[in-house]
Amino acid sequence: MKHPSPSERPWLSVAMPVHCGERWLGATLGSVAAQDCTGVELLILDSSPNDGCTKIVRSFADRLDIRYEHAPAVTSWTAKTNIAVGRARSPHVCILHQDDLWLPDRLGAMREAIATFPKAALLLNPSHIVDEGGRRLGLWRCPLPHDRMLRAAEVIEVLLIQNFVAMPAPVIRRAAWLSVGGMDEGLWYTADWDLYLKLARAGATVYRPRPTTAFRVHGASLTVSGSRDRHDFEAQLKTVVERHIGEVPAERRPQVRRRAMTSIAVNCELAQAATGSPAALLRACATILLLGPAETFRYLRDSRIVERALPRFRARLAGSF
User: Fold this and answer.
1) What percent of the chain clears pLDDT 70, i.e. is strictly above it?
2) Pairing assessment for the beta strands 127-130 and 40-46 based on DSSP bridges
3) Residue 247 has what DSSP assignment?
4) Burial 133-143 (b: 16+ CB within 10 A, else e)
5) The dihedral of CA 320, 29, 177, 114: what is its sign?
6) Quick one: pLDDT band at residue 311, thresholds 50, 70, 90?
7) What domains lie within the chain, and their CATH numbers?
8) Model pTM?
9) 95-116: per-residue pLDDT in tens?
10) Which candidate, 292, 295, 302, 290, places its Cα nearest to that of 265?
């Protein structure tokens, strides 16, 4: 793979945990290679048992600055991501999973965001949700004010209700990542959510409203396959809420906790509905309505449940999973 000289410090490092991603990896790397990648390094850790992904990565070696390692012993995506960020040479990092995509001029938008908000710990943007063929199903936005530095209190209280950040969207100041200890490798499903909450305390968050990424939904994704074990899925979600609920002012904590617990219950029911249980969908709706009118409005606003759920059901109806 291509390696830059030590004097050529990149401005952005992309952590890519890969495992048996032959179906998607070419399109993902192609979405990166289609842009001006000067000063961008890709750190790919691949735990696949075969060389299918290796061959795909090699086919991009003349177009991208790739630092690749075949690491079959490192099976956790969180561990691979932490290793990649630890090796990164740039002041800013982002994560790109093997099945997600960058939109045209993602890098131009990120350069501008970093130049405008150089001290932000966490830069966010909306993400299109796409199906297995890349067809757009919806837009996944963040319920945050845009284009200004947001304090921890402005972010944590809404982010605790639901992880509204699509995985390929954030750009993170590497020093902030390291200062909070990176991803908790014990959280196989919610490590990114936990990370964003930690980063919100480590520095300012900035949300820019222009979509620059695409998040792919399909039957083999961790989002779908992992949520089928309801007990473990629920435990992962509750761990994050209990870990960070203390950051909410005491006078508002009961209401935020109630919305967060409702969100967890709804997520669990929707996961069951996705496996073919229509009754679970009715239970999810009933759980939301039990909040009462005012709290239901706040939950729907902060959770982005409609933006997240409708594209997935649309994909399911189309046979994507």
Assistant:
1) 93
2) unpaired
3) G
4) eeeebbebbbb
5) negative
6) confident
7) 12-216 (3.90.550.10), 222-317 (no CATH)
8) 0.93
9) 999 999 999 999 999 999 999 9
10) 290
